[in-house]
Amino acid sequence: KAGVTQTPRYLIKTRGQQVTLSCSPISGHRSVSWYQQTPGQGLQFLFEYFSETQRNKGNFPGRFSGRQFSNSRSEMNVSTLELGDSALYLCASSLDTRNTGELFFGEGSRLTVL
Amino acid sequence: AQSVTQLGSHVSVSEGALVLLRCNYSSSVPPYLFWYVQYPNQGLQLLLKYTTGATLVKGINGFEAEFKKSETSFHLTKPSAHMSDAAEYFCAVSVRGNEKLTFGTGTRLTIIP
Question: What confidence score (pLDDT) does residue A1 get?
Fold first, then answer.
């Protein structure tokens, strides 16, 4: 079956702009998590959604937000972009992480902020 | 709170040699432990996981890991390295009822021909 799909794969923005990233989970998966990966900070948890509800949130400023739709697809939004937001944003899906914690990752969206 | 420490940000081994990547965790409750691999410009792929039961876990591509509670370790091994094993490896921990994974800083594995 198809894996986790993230769009766009690459994008370039300038400081102050906003960006929306999209994630389509594996069919049947109801949990979607987002992670930020940077060389300096490594992999950091942003938030997790299950059945359209945010269940957990990492330690990121309010400029980072997300949502999940009834078909389990998810989007994350970053407003007022800063240079430090340049990163690989990874989406992961799971049947329900509360059972096993196992995540299936997409290939990521690489954001460059100029 | 959980945490993971991966010893060695870079590890080089010769093709055919033993691969050993070290991971120590900290958790106040029984953990779930994972090893993920990341190839360049790709997402993370699960190698293996420990949740409960047998402490020696076998994964894909010939990798295995042993959960040692007394040592709070979950080291990843492979008896014979292949060139295709060159990648970055991440150890991660979670606990039942908590949705997020806490990752280590990663170990970049280089295979010497």
Answer: 62
